[in-house]
Amino acid sequence: xxxxxxxxxxxxxxxxxxxxxxxxxxxxxxxxxxxxxxxxxxxxxxxxxxxxxxxxxxxxxxxxxxxxxxxxxxxxxxxxxxxxxxxxxxxxxxxxxxxxxxxxxxxxxxxxxxxxxxxxxxxxxxxxxxxxxxxxxxxxxxxxxxxxxxxxxxxxxxxxxxxxxxxxxxxxxxxxxxxxxxxxxxxxxxxxxxxxxxxxxxxxxxxxxxxxxxxxxxxxxxx
Amino acid sequence: xxxxxxxxxxxxxxxxxxxxxxxxxxxxxxxxxxxxxxxxxxxxxxxxxxxxxxxxxxxxxxxxxxxxxxxxxxxxxxxxxxxxxxxxxxxxxxxxxxxxxxxxxxxxxxxxxxxxxxxxxxxxxxxxxxxxxxxxxxxxxxxxxxxxxxxxxxxxxxxxxxxxxxxxxxxxxxxxxxxxxxxxxxxxxxxxxxxxxxxxxxxxxxxxxxxxxxxxxxxxxxxxxxxxxxxxxxxxxxxxxxxxxxxxxxxxxxxxxxxxxxxxxxxxxxxxxxxxxxxxxxxxxxxxxxxxxxxxxxxxxxxxxxxxxxxxxxxxxxxxxxxxxxxxxxxxxxxxxxxxxxxxxxxxxxxxxxxxxxxxxxxxxxxxxxxxxxxxxxxxxxxxxxxxxxxxxxxxxxxxxxxxxxxxxxxxxxxxxxxxxxxxxxxxxxxxxxxxxxxxxxxxxxxxxxxxxxxxxxxxxxxxxxxxxxxxxxxxxxxxxxxxxxxxxxxxxxxxxxxxxxxxxxxxxxxxxxxxxxxxxxxxxxxxxxxxxxxxxxxxxxxxxxxxxxxxxxxxxxxxxxxxxxxxxxxxxxxxxxxxxxxxxxxxxxxxxxxxxxxxxxxxxxxxxxxxxxx
Lengths: 223, 615
Ligand SMILES: Cc1cc2nc3c(=O)[nH]c(=O)nc-3n(C[C@H](O)[C@H](O)[C@H](O)COP(=O)(O)O)c2cc1C
Ligand code: FES
Fold this sequence. Notes:
Chain A is of the alpha+beta class. Chain A is 22% helix and 12% strand. The longest helix of chain A has 17 residues, at 79-95. In chain B, helix 3 packs across helix 4, helix 9 packs across helix 12 and helix 11 (224-231) packs across helix 12 (233-247). Flavin mononucleotide (FMN) binds next to strand 11 and helix 22 of chain B.
């Protein structure tokens, strides 16, 4: 067992856990995007950053990859963390506003502006699909290609893969393309419409009113 | 080649090499590294070989083809030993005349180096200001050895340090010596080398530990590692042998970028020769110590210089970093403990251990030892300079570099490559050390030094590096991939006159967050070019934003070219203009059609009358 302090609370957790697991275990929420309990940690979206150590030498690390250490001090929602998280969400919104997952993150974290050139990309390269394909389906049909701006996910040479079993796992797990969000004004990246609804849309007369084409509606799943 | 079975064999060979060598025979030394070859050294080599054979001078005059000596501005150059005569920018006829003179033991006066400041001719290399102000601990070896000949290296007491340690010293003791020397990594972060070695030595016992030489040098404008690899490959092999002995590693890997074909050739040759001598392989010198090195070629991605990406690349996977911990010494190549050091760090090891460590610690202020910088940009003497730590920047730029190359004064220097920052002229008296450069908002990095003058726009510089980084980011970590792209967009807006004060605020905010949240060193240092220019040259940013003016006359969106009355109507610019934007009668003042003009500046560089103005 390892003892560490999370947000001032002394907790004892099993060795080998990540900070994310430990924090969630004791009930501190940390948003994640590229993390999934069934898949290996990847550490790419950086949404799960937490501040570790004592100031002024404290630093931000991705909690989904960082193993707990004896005596570690963790803050999951310090000013520094919130600022970084907000900026990441803003960058996400700027690239992929049609993802419902991202819109929900924006409303949950009070991100009300998007100051960059608006793009409409379909993929945030979180790699969940690649890991699902290789780790859960043992297929290794898709992978990453290129680097920097040109990085993309697909099969080698874009030729349909003979190891792909068309299981659809990649689409199921995708936070960007599966939960599509259409909002009334495409020029505004932030809609917040459904997430801000009280009560959730299920109790509304019909989801048609909500400019949402998801069927069944997923708004009710929003925390 | 003799196979050495014991220390006695080694000493005997070395003794034979010492006594066989006659230092009095005049030797023509031609630096022919990649830089030398590019400026025509191969022609000189061919000419010299032909002349020596033609005049039957074999045995009377020696020819030594070496790696780069550092003074790349003056290449192709020739150095004569033992006199130490230096001839800059030699051509084929010059080469013939030098040999003529050498036969008669004379010096070709009119080919000598001329000091621009004093107008005086300087005969000896060591008297030239560029060399005089340096302490060339590593680079001076490049002139003494033919990189393709291991005997040359042995003759300058190469491998002696390794053989001595191997037979006389416990591995623990070697690590202590390296720790005592205060040597710090030359690849970027400046981590204490001895400490890193200790970590590897302490990592699990048993077989299977790797040590790696990081020769992925990807910084634009930096080539000190290349010159070491090309000019003195055995010193790196020796450094790695010592490292392996000290840490108990049994496998070595040299990770070299494919863009360095000559370095790869020399390294492969060096490995082959030391294997043939029995200095590499199983049971080295009969001591039971075994170690071998393999060479892996990288495809030239900047990010593969980062440790974790480098290891994945060596494993044959896609070169992208992963989160640390686990650190390479805990879990490295194929899961085995791995130690990674930079080329220059390895090359320093034999130098540190050859003599007493106390001797070494005397070199340099603040940090120990020397550091090689590649001095490029708007500077008179471009080349590789090696100075002790603690040398003020001004000494490098003015005393060694000779100051600005053009009319415009020097404005700033960019150190540390794309991860570094710009240091303004007014701070040039700060001494070079890991800490002082970091304090100034830059880093030591691997040692790139790009000098900028008044004609350089700092927004353009930041934009250049951001463009580089957005292409070179591996793309795995979201804020790095998108953040560098967004920073580039914001800078581009500012540079083309679309910038507002909000742009500046967003840029700064984004830069600070990126420094904090990204996964690897690339993203964490990517904002440095922006943050340091914002810190020291904010007024230039404001000038672009508020007055839509580029003071240096660089940003194409904000400048226009016009022709003043100094124009003689010679028509040179008309021919030079790729857009056919310039018209005018012969001998009359010409005009530029602003709608057609693409602001390339071709007319301005061809005009002899300074008739083209930038607004
Ligand atoms: C983006 C990036 C690029 C790097 N490129 C290089 C490089 O080209 N050569 C190098 O030696 N180190 C490079 N490094 C530093 C290495 O990660 C590592 O710190 C170094 O090789 C360690 O050796 P040292 O302790 O001898 O300095 C780079 C680091 C980063 C983050
Ligand atoms: S969830 Fe940890 S980095 Fe994406």
